[in-house]
Amino acid sequence: MQIHSHQEFDPRSNKPVEQGLRRVLDRLVSTMQRDALIRQTTNQLRESLQADRVILYYFYWQWQGQVTFESLSSDKYSILGSTGQDNCFTDEYAALYLAGRIRAIANIDQESLESCHREFLQSIQVRANLVVPILVPKGLWGLLVAHQCQAPRIWSQADIDLMQTAAKTLATDYNILGS
């Protein structure tokens, strides 16, 4: 027979409430740290690349997602909250990014693209883009994307390497792995 202290069974004890508050606080701190890292990463990338826009497209469901972070050279390029074209990001595209695909498009008007993809890019003022997957053990967490809106642009290997390094940094961060 095990004897427990009176305090363990005290109905006035706030232990469950305190534990719940601790979990909420830990989750909040983790979210704030994750958001700060993503914000810092997108800002540094945009400045280093001298791009018009760098975004994080986060997948919240099976190939459904939205732009959750952006760094802009001008507010006129804001697409925060954009979800993209319905049914344009297919399982085929997802499989390519899951395999580590990096897509550098110098000029969207001259690239072989699905019409829904080209129309979407045109609607958000994209002239050139660079897309790198953020791969976590669970799969495709998101896409890190640089946009050139003012003119076409040839992305250098250094640009691609920089984006890949940033994506790997995000993918290995504890606060992202846990989300």
Automatic annotation (TrEMBL):
Listed InterPro entries: GAF, GAF-like_dom_sf, Phyto_chromo_attachment
Short name of one Pfam family: GAF
Domain spans labelled Phytochrome chromophore attachment site: 33-169
Stated name of the protein: Phytochrome chromophore attachment site domain-containing protein
Organism listed in the record: Anabaenopsis circularis NIES-21
